[in-house]
Design goal:
Number of strands: 9
Strand order of the largest sheet: 3-7-5-8-2-1-9
Order of helices and strands: EEHHHHHEEEHHEEHHEHE
Oligomer: single chain
Length: 266
């Protein structure tokens, strides 16, 4: 089975690329979701490139929307970004029910953009946001992770409300088991949202500092999420969905045709 991705440039000229699905259980479940969504416009907030980078403004607008006090912070400090992420988490369920809830997702992405997320820099993300609705399902996707992320291929990326364990550690979040279980999550949600790798993403060995820090949480956390282990690929990789039919340079192509229009099953 194949999919066609269609892009456009600033002059509304079109460009398309074809990809062939790889044979794994996740890609087959993913394509069933795409069948329902291929005629629906993608969400401009959840789809790269992101045109909102002013975290101060997103923070202020979010507080107005959520009807909570706006407390200005130093947006260059990781401690402040952790506070903003917690603000987002605490208000997510309530604000997501509002009509103008797009501000919620702009705020969340703005936090990660400020953190300099490699995940957002190296992948071109395509998503439908809340339009996915009931198509979002629970499934432990980590066991299907590829050994590497190769440029120009399609992947199912980690898409949880929280952080991966190593990111939690690097962000100097609270070292407390209940908070860790709540925020640090494996890939347990199968969404239609997908990513195009702009470059190869190196799978690095988990650092000794992280392994030592993780040790006191590991048994309880793995048990909670029904996992046997946590590997370097779980932190850095994704599920391989499809490969390009012809040699392409996605990073170069996206500079010429930066706007994603749609995906078609062919």
């Amino acid at each position: 089975m194949k999919v066609k991705l269609i892009f456009s440039n600033r002059n509304n000229q079109l460009h398309d690329e074809n990809f062939t699905l790889v044979d794994n259980p996740i890609s087959l479940l993913w394509i069933k979701k795409i069948k329902h969504l291929q005629k629906i416009d993608v969400d401009p907030i959840e789809t790269s490139p992101y045109n909102f980078h002013n975290l101060h403004d997103q923070h202020k607008d979010f507080c107005t929307l959520a009807k909570i006090p706006f407390i200005k912070v130093d947006y260059e400090e990781q401690e402040s970004l952790n506070y903003l992420h917690e603000l987002y988490e605490k208000n997510h369920d309530r604000v997501s029910k509002f009509k103008n809830n797009q501000l919620l997702y702009k705020f969340h992405l703005s936090i990660h953009l400020r953190e300099g997320s490699k995940f957002l820099e190296d992948l071109f993300i395509v998503g439908w946001g809340t339009k996915e609705g009931p198509l979002t399902t629970k499934l432990n996707c980590n066991e299907f992770y590829s050994n590497q992320v190769r440029a120009n291929n399609l992947y199912l990326p980690w898409s949880e409300l929280g952080k991966r364990p190593k990111t939690y550690f690097e962000n100097k979040e609270l070292k407390e088991i209940n908070r860790f279980i709540s925020i640090a999550k494996p890939h347990i949600t199968l969404r239609a949202r997908f990513a195009i790798a702009k470059k190869n993403i190196e799978v690095l060995p988990l650092s000794k500092n992280f392994i030592d820090w993780f040790e006191s949480f590991k048994t309880k956390w793995l048990s909670h999420y029904d996992l046997k282990t946590w590997r370097d690929i779980d932190e850095y990789s994704a599920v391989h969905l499809a490969s390009p039919d012809h040699p392409i340079n996605v990073e170069k192509m996206l500079k010429e045709y930066p706007k994603f229009l749609k995906i078609e099953i062919i």
